[in-house]
What does this fold into?
Amino acid sequence: MQKKYLIISICFVLIWTASTFSIAIAQDAHSQHQAHSDGAAEKSFKAEMSVPDGIRQEEPFKIKIFIKDDKGQNVPDFDMFQEKLMHLILVSNDLGFFRHLHPEHQGNGYFLTDATLSSAGDYTLFCDYKPAGQKEQLSMLKLGIKGKGKPSDITDTRKTEKILDDIKVRLELSPTTIKVNQETMLTFDLKQTMDNSPVKGLKPYLGEKGHLVIIKKSSVFTIRNYIHAHAMKGGEDSKIEFMTAFPEAGLYKMWCQFDHKGKIMVADFWVNVQP
Ligand SMILES: [Cu+2]
It folds into this structure.
């Protein structure tokens, strides 16, 4: 009798863990969307990666990514979202290095991109894709270069201004203290350094005013550490606004990308999320 009870308990824990995990995936991949409830069974997917041996810093190399379904079969077709079939965010584990890449689909679930790493150390890849007719999926991959890396990125949450060429980017938070799970407005206000006038000549980037990736500083990353926010429509031309919530307290780094006269700029800031 006791044994039977134990088995039932274990099954319950497994089911609970599995359902919690799939909810976590859906929330992360759809952090800015309502969960879909089309009644269809949710499929799971995974990304596998192949990179050459002996990657060296500052030397370009190829990243091959294979998207497979839960039966290990290659996924043949993908839906476009934000103008691409795959968005790949490559960061160093100290979050000092950031690249936003768009691997090209070579067919049958095989994607290919070039990449270059700036120094030795460990890196994480957040791979965002949408198998045809399915929800947006997020898979995590890891790679590294052996050896001594650059000194760690300095975590400075007081810095709210950044100069990029002739543009001054100022980060505004509303409310000014970010609390966990609370909707927060993040505004990136762009001014000309020369005369402090609003920046003109912003073009849409990937179909939106700007693109924002946020990753929580962690010793071991999970997909819950990754937030992809969509820029709000309208508002002043020189202000890029995002509404998002942070699922856990802690330190987060954010990278806002925008297109200024054909050049993709990246403004990065640290924020602290209070419990
Ligand atoms: Cu992208």
